[in-house]
Specification:
Elements (H helix, E strand, L loop, with lengths): L12 E7 L4 H11 L6 E7 L6 H7 L6 E4 L5 H11 L4 E4 L5 E2 L3 H7 L7 E9 L5 E5 L17 E4 H7 L9 H13 L4 E12 L3 H4 L1 H14 L4 H23 L4
Parallel strand pairs: 1-2, 1-4, 2-3, 6-9
Antiparallel strand pairs: 4-8, 5-9, 6-7, 6-8
Length: 256
């Protein structure tokens, strides 16, 4: 007899992907989910009523996608929160359309799970839209007091922490930093386990990359809201904006 849905074994991981007019980017992500050596996961896709062929691409993945919905939403935070409401796994991960996990990623996360209470993160390789590797996004939770220093797509959060802290604030930018800063203020560095290896690929060109100056302004607002003095928060805003602008110019320079 097939067990009722609420009696089915709980998956170890819930992966949530928010999409909107993602096209071929979705296929790239789907290929990396399908390639996971560890199969104890569910994949939840929340689409914002795409007008291109994204929904057809979601359907084409068959039973790889456990749940999917396609309807208008209020932005990325709203989509993530819809996915959280559907998630049943012990750990929840958010994977952007276009980004990818290495085949051993979930296997490695499980190996570092320990008591099941910590957020487990790895690093990620940083690629341009043309496929050139330009660096590594390092997960450094000890720096969360000043800015987002986690490879967010490669962080597995125990679902119980979302139940305790709530979901993502409905913000246009920096909603990931807002949640992890909240978590960091409660649990500190001891709330994290970092796998010291890059286990996936982050592709430049997303919303936060394009709107980096506005993202860092929002970061400063978040810090001030949580008690950081304004001059200190704005120092970090200016420092990160300058660093990102320098990197962006460097990436645009022709190869010599």
């Amino acid at each position: 007899m097939t067990p009722a849905p609420d009696a089915a074994p709980r998956p170890r991981f819930s992966i949530i992907t928010a999409t909107y007019n993602s096209g071929a980017l979705f296929d790239r992500t789907a290929a990396s989910v399908r390639a996971q050596r560890l199969r104890d996961f569910e994949w939840i896709v929340v689409d914002g009523a795409s007008k291109d062929d994204t929904v057809a691409r979601i359907r084409a993945q068959g039973d790889l996608v456990k749940h999917w919905i396609s309807e208008k939403d209020r932005g990325i935070s709203d989509a993530w929160n819809k996915g959280l409401a559907l998630a049943r796994g012990d750990y929840v991960l958010l994977l952007n359309a276009g980004d990818t996990y290495d085949p051993e990623f979930l296997e490695q996360v499980l190996a570092h799970a320990g008591d099941g209470r910590r957020v487990i993160c790895s690093h990620a390789r940083l690629l341009t839209e043309t496929g050139e590797t330009v660096g590594t996004i390092r997960s450094e939770p000890h720096k969360l007091y000043r800015a987002m220093h986690l490879a967010h797509n490669w962080c597995a959060v125990p679902r119980a922490h979302y139940e305790q802290l709530g979901g993502y604030a409905e913000m246009r930018l920096a909603m990931d930093f807002e949640w992890f800063h909240r978590y960091f203020r409660r649990h500190g560095v001891d709330g994290f386990t970092v796998i010291d290896a890059p286990l996936g690929v982050y592709h430049l060109g997303g919303t936060s990359d394009v709107n980096y100056a506005a993202s860092f302004r929002t970061n400063a607002d978040i810090l001030i809201h949580h008690g950081t003095p304004g001059p200190v928060a704005n120092f970090w805003r200016l420092a990160y904006t300058a660093k990102h602008a320098w990197r962006a110019r460097r990436l645009q320079e022709p190869a010599r």
